[in-house]
Design a protein that fits this description.
The structure is a homodimer of 235-residue chains. Chain A has 235 residues and is mostly helical. The first copy, chain A, contains eleven helices and no strands. The relative contact order of chain A is 0.09. The N terminus of chain A is likely disordered. Chains A and B meet through α8, α9, α10 and α11 of A and α8, α9, α10 and α11 of B. The structure holds a DNA duplex (30 and 30 nucleotides).
Chain lengths: 235, 235
DNA sequence: ACCGTTACAGACCGGATGGTATGTATAGTA
DNA sequence: TACTATACATACCATCCGGTCTGTAACGGT
């Protein structure tokens, strides 16, 4: 049986098929496998041989797509971890309505959907931040850029909330945004050390109550706002 | 010139003196050098040769005092990092008076005394927690035990504050204590990634204002407490 | 059909690393 | 003083790891 090249090009052939070559698919395999290994062992201890074995590829493929191990790591941050994180924390979602309530919903959603794997391995971005920041400037910048995107989005939300009277105006939105992200990452970090999903949930819960403290105070002799009064939640 | 063994035993001889042997001093040198190298590069990437070179010792000394690299790491956590951290965060200090104000003072003291090195390298305990928790159970337990000591002390403070009417009684002291420590570590982590002492200070500042929100609410028609009313601080 | 380029496979290499084996001087003890 | 255990120093080893080099089959253009 003879297959024309044109037909092959349009086929979504299986990964076990060695007869055709798809550079972008190969690259994706490398990135996925590298992310896994880095997530598990850290970047420095991540073994290229392990990555290649899991990807079903060899050194030739790796060093065709990336000049060295570090560049593979940068690509993992930019093309895998970044999207992973921003998606998971709702940064990419449309932002409307009460930002504090929206943030609390995201926290609750994440607290509810925590996996054992996530508790044990922590946040992949934070892992890389702590390991690589002092050792590699490009790594640090790539990681910090993602954190900036995240905190920037939260800050924007808070500022919008302030403009709409949903957030106290006497708070510095950017400082608070940085604190919120720091508290989230810290909560994951402590929970990872304790190997406790319960600790993670309780910390995120306290963070949620902190968000309530950012709501405007109810003035006595004043018209009630369109939003219901902030419920006092047990911290 | 002849020295008696007794005299030698009671002398604090200099580190350059090779004629006498002091096992505990040697062990301390190993621990100090190991802490430095681990703090800079992480445990897995810490080189024993580098540690020994900095300590002015050799493999023989190392493997006489420790069975393997991992055990050296455990000892560093238990005998160096733990004390370092508990001292730096005032866990070992006598605990009296208003716990929230005391905590805020510690935060301010740490925020004011931050060094460039600390911003770049972060918290040594948190570094080890993030790197080693998934890889080595003994490491994880040693680190988690120190975090527990810390959060436990904070929780005790908060509970005492609650008993004395200085802290709101509707908060879960242990959950809040965990959150506080998590927020501190997260703040150091984010600042390390951003390489920004300013970010660290602002995050700790927001944390300080969060502590204010834990103070009891002032009832209108009631006698004022002996402590001054909580000042509303700009978050 | 031919040919240059692309996309890998696979063998190989130098260096670094954790760990071991052995040697040796010192300290304690009888 | 003689002996034994301690406290190291030094040379050495096996392994792993990042990276290179070469070979080769598939693809695209002419």
């Amino acid at each position: 049986m003879v297959w024309s090249g044109l037909l092959w090009k349009n086929m979504a052939n299986s990964s076990t098929d060695r007869r055709s070559r798809q550079p972008d698919v190969t690259r994706d395999k490398l990135l996925k496998a590298a992310f896994e290994e880095i997530y598990r062992r850290g970047f420095q201890s991540a073994s290229l041989d392990t990555i290649l074995a899991q990807a079903g590829l060899t050194k030739g493929a790796l060093y065709h797509h990336f000049p060295d191990k570090a560049s593979l790591g940068y690509a993992v941050v930019d093309e895998v971890v970044r999207g992973f994180l921003l998606e998971r924390w709702g940064v990419l979602e449309p932002r409307t309505g009460d930002p504090l309530t929206a943030l609390q919903r995201v926290l609750q959603r994440r607290a509810a959907g925590i996996t054992t794997r996530e508790v044990e391995l922590g946040c992949p971005l934070n892992n890389l931040a702590q390991e690589m920041s002092p050792l590699d400037q490009r790594f640090r910048r790539a990681v910090a850029a993602t954190f900036d995107t995240w905190t920037g989005a939260v800050a924007k939300d808070l500022e919008r909330g302030q403009a709409e009277g949903l957030v106290r105006r006497d708070v510095d939105a950017r400082k608070v945004a940085g604190f919120i992200v720091a508290a989230i990452e810290g909560s994951f970090g402590l929970a990872k050390s304790a190997r406790s999903a319960a600790m993670l949930r309780s910390s995120l819960e306290v963070l949620g109550s902190f968000l309530d403290s950012l709501r405007p105070v109810q003035r006595k002799s004043q018209k009630a706002p369109d939003k219901p009064a902030p419920r006092k939640r047990r911290v």
